[in-house]
Amino acid sequence: MTQVKICGLTDPDLVRFAAQKGADWIGFVFVEASPRHVTEAAAATLLMQAGRAVPVALLVDPDDAQIQRIVALGIRTLQLHGSETPERVTAIKAATGVEVWKALGVAAPEDLERAALYTAADRLLIDAKPPHGADRTGGHGLAFDWTLLEGWSAPKPWLLAGGLTAENVAEAIRLTGAPAVDVSSGVERLKGLKDRALVQAFIEAAKA
Ligand SMILES: O=C(O)c1ccccc1NCC(=O)[C@H](O)[C@H](O)COP(=O)(O)O
């Protein structure tokens, strides 16, 4: 069954709800520029509600000190969503031993070729590129051309992200063969404000 990550939750009740509805991972955005930003102080309360869902810390070009603080919170999966090089990902993996994911923005076939360079990553998140001039590297609710993934042989376990919704996720899975999907904007009523009904509908559509 397709695995699901609900990203950018900031409300403990919604964390519990998403976990109860079957989310496999819940993403917490430790990025100040984000409308879904959570502080390290708030994270402890959120983590307590995750149940069997695995918490994922979304970080953008984190320094070693931030990584240490996040791991000290008890989070064992890091999603790197900045311009981290393959060498940096290898160093983070070696220093922490936790699960490390690397997000890659895709707009052309050569973007997918970079995936093979991230040999230390445990998982890849294949996402849309941010719009030109954006102040954030992800979470814009934009899809990329899924046909770019036709015939792609993923070097790692991976998730499809970018502009997914309850309405399009089944088609996205069918076209790309994605074993897992990630959503943020598509389960929001307003930017940064998640909606229970949309979260439930997304999980059900992805797992149907
Ligand atoms: O959510 C953010 O604001 C964010 C900020 C900085 C880096 C990444 C960010 N989000 C990434 C995601 O939530 C998802 O992994 C992915 O980009 C899909 O987002 P969406 O298209 O909004 O579903």
Automatic annotation (TrEMBL):
Phylogenetic lineage: Bacteria, Pseudomonadati, Pseudomonadota, Alphaproteobacteria, Hyphomonadales
Molecular function via GO: phosphoribosylanthranilate isomerase activity
Protein name: N-(5'-phosphoribosyl)anthranilate isomerase
GO biological process per UniProt: L-tryptophan biosynthetic process
Enzyme category, top tier: isomerase
Keywords annotated in UniProt: Amino-acid biosynthesis, Aromatic amino acid biosynthesis, Isomerase, Tryptophan biosynthesis
Source species: Hyphomonas beringensis
InterPro entries named among the record's database cross-references: Aldolase_TIM, PRAI_dom, RibuloseP-bd_barrel, TrpF_fam
SUPFAM superfamilies reported in the protein's UniProt record: Ribulose-phoshate binding barrel (SSF51366)
Catalytic activity, reaction form: N-(5-phospho-beta-D-ribosyl)anthranilate = 1-(2-carboxyphenylamino)-1-deoxy-D-ribulose 5-phosphate
Pathway where it operates: Amino-acid biosynthesis; L-tryptophan biosynthesis; L-tryptophan from chorismate: step 3/5
Family: Belongs to the TrpF family.
Keyword check for Isomerase: yes
Domain of life: Bacteria
Residue ranges occupied by any N-(5'phosphoribosyl) anthranilate isomerase (PRAI) domain in the UniProt entry: 4-204
Gene3D superfamilies: Aldolase class I
Name of the gene this protein is made from: trpF
E.C. number(s) listed in UniProt: 5.3.1.24
Record-linked Pfam families: PRAI
